[in-house]
Amino acid sequence: MKRITAFLIGLLTGAVVVGAAGTATYYGYVRPRHLAEVKREAEKDAADRSSLSLRVSDLTKDLQAADKKLPVQPGQTSVNKLSETAEAQLTKKLQAEQFVGTVLLVRNGAIIYHQGIGYADAAKKRLNTVKSIYQIGSTQKSLTAIALAQLIQAGKVHYGDNIHQYYSQIPASHNITIREMLNMRSGLIYTLGAPKTVLTDDQVIQRSLDNLTYDADFHGKQNYQAVNFVLLAGIIEKISGQSYEQYITQHLFQPLQLTNTQAGFAWNFAQQPNRTVSYVAKDGIGTYDKTITENLADMRGELGTGNIYTTPYALYRLERAIIQGKYTSTAAVAELRDTTDGQYGGGVYNFPTYVYSHGVKNYQELVFTMSDDGNTAAILMTNRAYDYNNALPRAKWYYHFAQTAELATEGNKS
Questions:
Q1: Is the Cα dihedral 34, 40, 45, 46 positive or negative?
Q2: For position 53, what pLDDT does the model report?
Q3: 268 FRET partner, CA 20 to 30 A, in 65, 199, 320, 338?
Q4: pTM of the entire predicted model
């Protein structure tokens, strides 16, 4: 018994000694080394984070510096290179016309003036800018015309073709040519208003065919009738196998990398951030007192003739691309626009040294002139059409101004 007791006491004593030694070893040797290792790892991690932070900061600075070196894309910012005298002259003219919208003036390929004026949306205090979009109205016919010219250049249709093969139900269709429709000399007349219900392209065309008339006295004489271009849009669809919207988007918008924020069809207009509200301009009504909204049935009814919107600069690029042979050869453009005396031909009015177009839709208006080389232009787009009955004299004034206005010399204007 005594031996057992002595053994147990010895065992316990040994355990205590070993435990004390282990504790002393841990606190005297292991733990300090562990803490030191943890501290070194923490310091290394902090150093790594600091180094990473510096690298991110340096990268951010490099990106910012690179961004500053990138040239600003033309047409995306306001420009005013006019002298103070010229600017005052332009401002006086615009104020006399109660102008609300965006003005783009280009001389020899360089923007000399590009400014938004007034409100895009007065209720929300959102101003017009160079990125504002507007409906281009009848100027769309120039796009329909160049689309058809592409198909003509491809040999799929000809200016001299009569329209009987496409619209045999039209009186005198054997004698009416593609050329006559492009130049508003077909003798076709259409006076029915906009549809009350939303129609497909085929239904729009059929409605036109059901309600147009033919007047032999006007055949061969210029008589502006939008129905000609509705039917030409239908021919584009028949030949290409695409809808008009698909064809214009693929063959005109996409080659210039134009997005819906720059150019598109009216049914997408309201979704764009830079859309403009239309304001009624009449005596006794304040500038922003009365708005007007176009319905979808009206939009769809303007097939090929008035359901596209653009920014002023996007329109400049589209029309310049036409003139400079980006969509067809320049010879094909000359053949399309075969008049030079101010008469209508191929979707625009052709003068000896420039082309002119005018569009009005839903109290939005476009006045457009461009030199025959595509490098000088005056484009005014408004969301409050005011003096649209005098569009041609106005267009000539702004085009002349774009050509001749005094520019600011370096250092005399900020």
A1: positive
A2: 54
A3: 320
A4: 0.83
